[in-house]
Amino acid sequence: MLSQWQHHLSLPDAEEEATLPHDQWQKEMWQAAQVFKEHLGELPGHLTRQFQLLSILGTAALPDDELAKIRAIKSKMLDIYNTAKTCDFKNSTRCDLSLKPELTQIMQESRDYEVLTQAWQAWRDSSGRKMNGLYREYTQLANEAAKLNGFNNMAEMWLIEYNETGTFMDNVADSYKQLMPLYKQLHAYVRRKLREVYGAERVTARGPIPAHLLGNMWAQRWDHIYHLVAPYPARKSLDVTQQMRKLGYTPKMMLEVADDFFASMNLTRLPEAFWQHSILEKPANSLCHSSSWDFCNGKDYRITMCTEVSMSNLISIHHAMGRTQYQMQYKHLPLVFRGSANPGFGEAVSHVLSMSLSTQTHLKKIGLLSHLKEDREAEINFLLKIALNKIAFLPFAFLADMWRWDVFNGDIPHTHWNCAWWQLRFQLQGMKPPVPRSEEDFDPGAMYEVAAGVDYIRYFVAHVLQFQIHRALCIIAGEYNPLHSSKPLHECDLYHSTEAGNALRAMMQLGKSKPWPEALEAVTGQREMNASALTEYFRPLQEWLTKNNQKHGEFIGWEADGDNCSDPCVCD
Q1: What pLDDT shows up at residue 306?
Q2: What's the pTM value of the predicted model, to 2 decimals?
Q3: C-alpha span between 391 and 430 (Å, rounded)
Q4: pLDDT of residue 158
Q5: Which residues does residue 437 pair with via DSSP β-bridges, in sequence order?
Q6: Among 405, 428, 427, which residue's Cα sits nearest to residue 417?
Q7: How far is 407 from 413, CA to CA, in rounded Å?
């Protein structure tokens, strides 16, 4: 059976040779840990937690033939995703359009409704639609693996890293409810602006928004349509790119600015190996994706990033180095504890450590702004641009895994997968497809994380926690007081606050040695995820959106305006 699937595997020989021994070692550790499961109550707490973490292996718990099969299926789905091509909509003889850069560029830049529709549908026809049968096999094998790990299905196994207190799902639902008033105001405002561009026959006054008009293939982030919806288009966005170039900034200088920021908070400076081995510019004849690397020896950390001199890349460098900072803080722990408190924590901390950079205060302190401007219109523009990225994303991040949880636990039969997807997108996000869908389609498969088998709730967690942690650190730093409006949360700068740095350091040093609610409590005093900090950050924008929507008589929420998914497939 193993040889039957071997030819489907896409790993290069060298990588395969390295991966298999590692997987075998992990499986041996997992098998050894099973011996202690019945005796965990007799062990010291730190040993109990180590054995608990080691007792979950994931899909590698499958027998060799089934493990090879699920890897082959994932490899095939990723191959479909990564190699999908579509034809040019204005030149049918050209059929080499990829997701990146061509289709992504069309979604971001085109304002032709039909071209956007064609790009949206062509991507799904060439990617997700081809994975439908493969995903059924993947789901069956993933659930078998979960049972071998002691869970009822893969949804339970994915959630174990988050649900350490048994209240995680309630926390997620409560956080979603907290942010919905703001999201609905944003949705109503953006819908009106898009109606002005595309007409009321395409964007109705009370319906969901067609999902291909938001500047993104999945309508998960809307910041690429900012220029269409900017509240005060005459006010320029805060961007110091030209000043950076005037001052002769280089990628290395950008990294030095980030290193100085962390050092100002009493966090750890980058080691020499980082400067020697990190890749900051695109190598010739090669691709580089932003990533952070921990070589697990306590001294060798690196990042790879194709860096251009720009404000957005300066923020990205702070974000990438936030992951490196986390890695350096937990280096003293046993290997099994070297990781963020849960999969969303590392991303949240990275965002926290890049949020200060977006403020006028910080940019002036580091010499990239000459003076501060108190401008209400510019403030609303600034907050709306961030909301198009952060707030617009949260309902999508919630529903993407809600769908998969219900798939894994059997609540959605495979004959209803795609329509259930669009029901969730309508109910939670206020979106509809630009063309009718059916069960012959498999639109979730047009997402990388579905094809790769990567959970998505981590991004919801990260987006909520970053504001919760940021608020706590800003209060510690004396840069935010919720009882006074003189220092609003969105203007907080943690630069030079050793108190905030020490609090963050203490949390990061826990790694995953403690349940994540304890790590959260160490820095915020709270044990549960809560979206109240997020709504505090955007309060001025929510007030402005509410008044603006009232002024224009805009309907808040959405109603169904058609049957968007039908013709269920009966194809056992």
Answers
A1: 83
A2: 0.91
A3: 13
A4: 93
A5: 565
A6: 405
A7: 7
80, amino acid identity: I
In sequence order, the β-bridge partners of residue 566 are: 438
The rounded Cα 233 to chain-centroid distance in angstroms is 28
- Mean pLDDT, all residues of the chain: 90
Angle at 184 between CA 158 and CA 208, to 5 degrees: 85
Q: If residue 565 lies in a helix (H) or strand (E), which one and from where to where?
A: strand 565-566
Taking alpha carbons only, the member of 153, 184, 358, 353 closest to residue 259 is 353
Contacts of 35 (CB under 8 A, 6+ apart): none
In order, the DSSP letters of 330-394 are TTTS-GGG-S-SSTTHHHHHHHHHHHGGGSHHHHHHTTS-SS----HHHHHHHHHHHHHHTTTHH
Examine the pLDDT at 184 and tell me if it is beyond 60. yes
Q: Does residue 143 contact residue 154 with C-beta atoms inside 8 Å?
A: yes
DSSP β-ladder status, 437-438 and 565-566: parallel
Cα separation, 531 vs 409, whole angstroms: 28
| C-alpha distance from residue 548 to each of 187, 192, 239 (Å) | 12, 11, 26
Q: Which residue has the tokens 């926290």?
A: 352
- pLDDT value of residue 173: 93
Q: What pLDDT does residue 5 have?
A: 33
How many CB atoms lie under 10 A from the CB of residue 9? 15
The structure tokens listed for 388 are 């198009």
| pLDDT (0 to 100) of residue 554 | 98
Find the distance separating the first CA and the last CA of the chain, reported in whole Å: 24
DSSP state of 514: S
